[in-house]
Amino acid sequence: MARAFDVVIIDEAAQAVEPATLIPLIHGCKQVFLVGDPVQLPATVISSTAQKLGYGTSLFKRFQAAGFPVQMLKIQYRMHPEISIFPSKEFYEGVLEDGEGLSKKRPWHSYSCFGPFCFFDVDGTESQPSGSGSWVNEDEVEFITLLYHQMAMRYPELKSSSQVAVISPYRHQVKLLKDHFRSTFGDQSKEVIDVNTVDGFQGCEKEVVIFSCVRCNKEQKIGFVSDFRRMNVAITRARSAVLVVGSASTLKEDKHWNNLVESAKERGRYFQVPKPFTAFFVDDKLKTMKVERAPPELRTVQALEAINEAVVGQELMDVDDAGDQEDEGYDDDPVEADDGGGDD
């Protein structure tokens, strides 16, 4: 007979159906901790009947609704503050706090169109592949390829799938993007950029994330792009730049998407991109999007802060080196080594 656990900790519990969560609990336990985010994607349930009967409701959500103790982890350590400010306000009641060091400026922040947060209004054309329930938008694919090329050309460190991802809610759009990047970069395309669905990218992160919304129609129908949890996942995967590409006129009928577009406009990070898309990246146009450097007095303060950090870091390294040298003298006497390695 299997023994019960004292404590069970289940990660990504908000993304698991209840029967799956119960598996580690069947033998009993004294305590269970469920860790997850209820405003990100839940478990995928194919059957509409099962969904209607509550199969998609996680034990995490059920416990939360029943009034069990909830502790929110408020400090995020991934996103630049210019990225986190919108999801914090829109999905987390404004309580998210940013960890230290996240506001560091990256080289690509020298242009307002390269982050940290941008919305590119591309009034393209959506289409549905024959026999498919999925959607594609070739205009967005064309613009995204140009956008990535411009960034990678100026900042070669971004020419890596470990640094940049393009994500989309639709599988056929992902396939079209992969084909387009393959025709552009050849067999090395998988090495220079990661392309995935939003659902497949949950739990992942990259330095730069480009999000293709796809939907563009006069009826303003956006399908499951309207799921705020999928939206939240998509815009919170990036560390230093999230670049959203979509049709503002189509998305604006959804409350959350309209708020995102308005946020971009308020911050001067909304860009209308007419055809030809190449005109958006000509030198004269890019010059207008060059971010002004900080005033001299602020740069002086920043420089002094950087010097201070370097000095403190060197002092800490010197202390560590001294400690290592002392430890080398205790190799033959571990008891003395322990005595000599205290806080003093």
Automatic annotation (TrEMBL):
Gene3D superfamilies according to UniProt: P-loop containing nucleotide triphosphate hydrolases
Q: Which Pfam families match?
A: AAA_11 (PF13086), AAA_12 (PF13087)
Tell me which InterPro entries the record gives. Answer: DNA2/NAM7-like, DNA2/NAM7-like_C, DNA2/NAM7_AAA_11, P-loop_NTPase, SF1_C_Upf1
Annotated Gene Ontology MF terms?
Answer: helicase activity
Q: Where is this region: Disordered?
A: 315-344
User: Which segments cross the bilayer?
Assistant: none
Q: Which residues form a coiled coil?
A: none
The chain positions of domain DNA2/NAM7 helicase helicase read: 4-47
Which residue ranges have biased composition labelled Acidic residues? 317-344
This protein's superkingdom?
Eukaryota
PANTHER family linked to this entry: DNA2/NAM7 HELICASE FAMILY, HELICASE MAGATAMA 3-RELATED
What protein is this chain from?
Answer: Helicase MAGATAMA 3
Origin species: Oryza sativa subsp. japonica (Rice)
